[in-house]
Design brief:
2 strands, mainly alpha, 7 helices, two-stranded antiparallel ribbon
Length: about 160
């Protein structure tokens, strides 16, 4: 009888060279850490980041936000629905344009939100090494850009 050996580290896995499984494991580890750091706010990391984005930026159109946060527009709409239900944002609509704005209640949360964001960065720096967080993020962003290159249309 063959008994599988449990691998404690990702680098010891039979699929350690698989970008698909490695990226999934990395995503789950980052998500777990982010949830821990953002829990004092009562918001998910995505909700908190979107709220910080709305507080710090003058423009708040869902299309631009989705581009900045690198998520689908429908994800921004879903997050906006959740934040609006908590009375942390308002939607202003004119014709077909929707503008998102942080409420005073959201502005009051700013110290908690910035602490959660700072704690997440600090924990990442502790675990990955000071300065390595931005290096890893940069590498992941460049890899994402290469994997999502859109083919140019042929002109007649």
């Amino acid at each position: 009888m063959i008994v599988p050996v449990k691998k404690e580290k990702a680098v010891d896995s039979a699929f350690a060279d698989s970008l698909y499984f490695a990226s999934g494991a990395f995503t789950r580890a980052v998500e777990k850490l982010a949830n821990e750091c953002w829990s004092p706010s009562g918001l998910t990391p995505s909700q908190g980041t979107l709220l910080l984005h709305l507080i710090y930026n003058d423009y708040a159109f869902p299309h631009f936000i989705s581009s900045d946060l690198r998520v689908n527009p429908s994800s921004v709409t879903r997050l906006a629905d959740q934040l609006e239900a908590k009375e942390l944002i308002e939607r202003l609509t004119y014709k077909r344009l929707t503008y998102l704005s942080a409420t005073n209640k959201a502005e009051d949360l700013l110290p908690v939100l910035t602490k959660c964001d700072d704690d997440f960065l600090e924990r990442c720096d502790q675990l990955l090494g000071k300065g390595n967080t931005s290096i890893v993020a940069g590498f992941l962003n460049r890899a994402t850009d290469k994997l999502t290159v859109k083919k140019e249309r042929k002109t007649k």
